[in-house]
Amino acid sequence: MADIFIRGIQSADVGAMWPTVSGWIQDALEAGHSLESIDDVREQIEAQDYQLWVVYSPEPVAAFVTRIATGELGSALVAVCLGGQGMDHWLFAVEDVITRFARDKGCKRVCLHGRRGWTRQLASYGWAEESVNVTKEL
User: pLDDT digits over 26-81, tens only?
Assistant: First the structure.
């Protein structure tokens, strides 16, 4: 197995990386039924409200986007979306990076909104299903 490394992309470098990662991000947004478009996400990344991360093995194989949500009682690192190929080979590294990044930023928790399959994928890393989102399309 190739070495895995993850790099946070500086907002000034998003344009150069976008052709490589935008398809993965688009697929993740669609699979998660996001109300944000790919353009919304890119704007938030370039405004430094969201952080773009790229998973390398050694070439780019995945990308994910995070943001920090802050409230009166503390903050949480929120995984906005994650997409790519070969997740079984790099999910452990993503989980480690976002957990360390969240701790470094003083977050109380890390959370994501996603399909139920994430519960199974992340259980071995100590994640637990806390709630269920129920929606109705109008």
Answer: 999 998 888 999 999 999 999 999 999 999 999 999 999 999 999 999 999 999 99
d(CA 126, CA 89): 18
Q: How far is residue 43's CA from residue 58's CA, in Å, rounded to a whole number?
A: 27
Dihedrals φ, ψ of 73, to 5°? -95, 5
Q: Are 48 and 62 in contact (CB under 8 A)?
A: no
> Where do runs of H (alpha helix) occur along 2-70?
14-31, 38-46
Q: Please work out, in degrees rounded to the nearest 5, the angle formed at the alpha carbon of residue 83 by the alpha carbons of 79 and 89.
A: 100
Structure-token pair, residue 91: 């999910």
Q: Could you read off the pLDDT of 121-137 as tens digits, one per residue? A: 777 777 777 666 655 56
Task: Report whether 36 contacts 64 (CB < 8 A).
Answer: no
SS3 assignment, position 20: helix
Total-model pTM = 0.87
Maximum distance among all Cα pairs of the chain, rounded to whole angstroms: 45
Contact 75, 69 (CB under 8 A): yes
The C-alpha atoms of residue 132 and residue 107 are separated, in whole angstroms, by 22
